[in-house]
Amino acid sequence: MRHSIGALVLSAVLGLTGCNSDNDNGTQAAAESYTLVVMPDTQKYSRYNPERYNAQTQWIADNYKQQNIVFTAHLGDVVDLPDSEQEWLNARAAMSILEANPATPYSILAGNHDVLAYRQSGVDINSNFDSDRTLAAEPFLKHFPASLQQNNFASFQGTDATGFNSYHLFKGGEREYLLLALDWRTSAASIAWAQSVLDAHPETPTILTTHQLLNVADDGNSAIFTDNGAMLWDKLIKDNDQIFLTFNGHHHGEAKMVAKNRYGRDVVMILVDYQSGFWGGNGMLQLVSFDEANKRLQFRSFSPWVAAIPEAERQPQDVLQRWEFEQPLDFEKRFAKLNQEVETEGPGKLEGTLAYWIFDAEHKLTSTDPAKVQFMDLSGRGNTLSLKAKAGSSGTQEQLFELLGEAPGFGHATGAARFKGGNTLGGYYLSSQAPTLVSADGQAGVLAQYTIEMIVRLAPEWQASENAWGAVFAHKPSQSQVCEHHKLDCGGGDPSLALTASSLKEFQWISTSSNGVGPSNWSWEVDRNYWYHVAIVNDGQYATMYVDNSRVMRTAEAEQHGLVSIPGGEWMVGASSWDGEVADLFRGDIAEIRIVDRVLPESDWLNAK
């Protein structure tokens, strides 16, 4: 045995008092940063080794000033056996160290090991929601009642009706944060309660903690949603822009996911749980430094217990720290205009941009359903594109649509959307009820001028018999429908606006203008498996097509005064239409599409160097 009981106690005492070495006491936080401490599952400590639990909280109590610790969040599974009074007493003793000082506030929540259903035969623990329990009998509520934190910490703001869910407000630097501590199985009523808290704090950056949200994938590294986590994402996280950070335990290991919410903003999601490791985690905490000056979060797992053991006496399993990484976070930018459509910054976002889509993984919105594919609109106008199957398609989504990691040699995409449909199998396309095109005098569905750009290539497998007239980009209403809407003397079954690939592998630009349907613009015959930049520039009189910056021969043959569309009419990427119905499908790859309400110089085009 490595240590005698006396040596263990001595180590614990050393952990309580801290030490002089930076390496043994945690890296000191930068003067302008502040720290959130995350306590993963403590169940093994409560049952087998409370000294490690005590070492964790005592280190926080001793170092909160030096480390600028502003809050501590427990992730549940406080105990191992919910009907063991001694385990609860051990947990209470450890957490009471923080309660002794109003400057060391904490949140705590129930994991599956903390509710009586865990030990009750005939009860499905996974279906035992907070509202299903006999509240008066639950030991978690007995030992960690709302009154305990209410009497100790100004950060505590209240609980839901069950007492299993709470929320807290604390300051980090000059910024106020909200923290939700949610039960491991939140009922619909509890989700509604959490939403009411968020509604009351629409501009407060929010951290969500719960016991189960992410799991570790089979590769041992990647993070994946659990069923419960998918529910929380769909019903609470993705639509509330102020939630920027989540933590959970339960599943053994560590993993990170950076998800995109409905506004296209990052939500950093962390799984951390060391209970299956040496001595149930060996006292490991996670320290999160909020470094506003350098626009980053710094994550590091650190064990106060190991820090108290002299280096010469540590065994190989006594790991002082692990899983150290940084996550970029521009605090001002991320927390500005919360719950509003977000405009991006960068070379692709210009004044007058009405819609801008990049079809790569970075700009794909996160979904808990693998079949649900959506791409954000970087213009900030909310023109989200969603993947749809053409009616009657016999092929699967996996067969007919793919997101590539391969990028063109120009533009801003790091990948592309691959459309693999055709006349035989059918296929998939992306759809939006936008963009909203508004003229300078406020007339809806009218653009006096525009520059529309697409970065596209035909697939090596492209065949005229299967893929001719499929559109890269199209407005679904027909020419006749748009002309009738705008009371113009024109018509036709073609889409009112589209870039198609003809039966001769030519790019064709079809458009309907305020002076009617004009002649199409045509490129030369293009190659398969070659990336092209296509720009259509309308100066208010003529529409001119450029392919790879070269003006094509058959273009601007008659006046075309801007373009007209039907407000609320469907726009499609990867499909054309006939008489207002989805028709021919595009076969190839699309990396970017951008619509700007003015004439752009070549120096501002997507392929500009």
Automatic annotation (TrEMBL):
Boundaries of every Calcineurin-like phosphoesterase domain copy: 36-253
Extent of the signal sequence: none
Protein known as: Serine/threonine protein phosphatase
UniProt GO MF annotations: hydrolase activity
Naturally occurring in which organism (per UniProt): Shewanella algae
One Pfam short name: Metallophos
InterPro entries: Calcineurin-like_PHP, ConA-like_dom_sf, Metallo-depent_PP-like, STPP_CPPED1
Top-level taxon of the source organism: Bacteria
Lineage, opening ranks: Bacteria, Pseudomonadati, Pseudomonadota, Gammaproteobacteria, Alteromonadales
